[in-house]
Amino acid sequence: MICDGSHMLRSRGRLSAIAAVVGVLVGLGLVVSTLFAAGLDITLNSRTYAYETQSLFGGPSYQNFSFRGVTFSFHLWCQITADSGIVCGNATEQNGASYSYSFTDGLPTTSPPPWQTWISPDGLEAVEYQQGGNVRLLVEL
């Protein structure tokens, strides 16, 4: 079999093109993952918190979530009035310290509904509640 070199050049060209595409895809993946990770923190009162979002509605009336060593407990509905309901709960730290919070659901809304914010007395965790059952569980970084 005689090889004139053009076949090898085409193969190298294909490999270079594939390597370039893979490099671009890896680079895009790193950029997207960096942007995504950067979006998982928020600053409140000059403190930076990592957070995750949960949905309370559609589940049981008592729910617990653990995030970064803090247990967040929610109770739907601690109290119900003619025009609103109260969502209440506790944030319990690893050392056993527990702080209670509550939020009102059913208020007149704007679109999108604003976030109601609670920050623990020691500032180590916080909860943001949005009418409709969305919560952000926040733990100081």
3D architecture notes:
This protein has 1 helix and 9 strands; from the N terminus they run H-E-E-E-E-E-E-E-E-E. The strands form 2 sheets. It has a 5-stranded antiparallel β-sheet, with no helix packed on it. Strands 3-4-5-6 form a 4-stranded antiparallel β-sheet, with no helix packed on it. A hairpin with a 5-residue loop joins strand 7 (115-119) and strand 8. With 141 residues, the protein is an alpha+beta fold. The protein is globular. The model is unreliable at 13-39 (pLDDT under 50). The protein starts with 5 loop residues before the first helix and ends with a strand. Helix content is 23%, strand content 45%. It has 2 domains: 1-39; 41-140, no CATH class. It has one helix at 6-38; strands at residues 41-44, 47-55, 62-67, 70-80, 85-92, 98-105, 115-119, 125-130, 134-140.
Q: Strand sequence of the main sheet, in spatial order?
A: 1-2-9-8-7
- Shape, per Cα inertia axes: globular
Contiguous low-pLDDT stretches (5 residues minimum) are 13-39
Proportion of residues in extended strands: over 45%
List SSEs in N-to-C order. HEEEEEEEEE
Query: What is the typical, i.e. mean, pLDDT?
Result: 79
Query: Using only CA atoms, what is the Rg?
Result: 25 Å
Task: Count every helix, treating DSSP H or I runs of 4 or more residues as helices.
Answer: 1
β-strand number: 9
Biggest sheet record? 5 strands, antiparallel
Q: What structural class do you assign from the helix and strand content?
A: alpha+beta
Distance between the termini: 66 Å
* Share of helix, binned: 10-25%
